[in-house]
Amino acid sequence: MKTFKKIFKISFYILSAIIFIIFITLSLFAWNASKPLSEMYDEIDRLNKESIYITEAYDSHNLVVNNPKAQIIIIPGGLVTSESYLYLAYSLAIEGYNVTVSKALFHLAILTPNYASRFLSNTLPNIIIGHSLGGTVGGFIASSHHKVDHLILLASYTTKPINNASVLLITAENDLVINQDAFNNSLSNYENYERVDIDGGNHAGFGYYGKQSGDGIALITINAQQNQTLQIIKDYLENHL
Fold it and tell me: What fold, for 36-240?
């Protein structure tokens, strides 16, 4: 009995130490997550936001408009802060959509892959927009929730079949982060998809956080890539809603 208690005690301490190390490691990664450039807020200040009601919660940024066309959920890329997608969120809200930017545990949506589904609307069409790893997580949600009508992947791909939602793939010419073979293989997962490539853009340009390690050099500004992305999304939704 004493031996059992001793083994249990040692195992408990080892497990606690492992959990502590994992927590510290994830905290350090999260601390170094990519944050929005100050110029993003300058661009947001230039937008007409009078018709948008804005709130922030522990797990989301919420932009609400009168008579919304649909509910949009934005899932950030891995180790990128949710604030880095606020220009995209504000610009879409101005177009008449309710927009929720999901915040992720340790800035890694993959740790709680179904969490953003709590923001799906029961009364409006639902659109998920995911960047990079956030798009993969968005694919998990779209594959298992029939309330998702459209999945928009920014420099991303899914590993799950998407049968009930239409899919828009927006890629960038100089993206060197995305796994191109995995992206190409994923195309068979989509029953219905369209693809648009942004000339001169790169992987990081789908967020507003600047350079990313291993990425290609953008030949257009971040603002230009953001606005092209917005126009592509706007045109797509106008044709599909």
Answer: Rossmann fold (3.40.50)
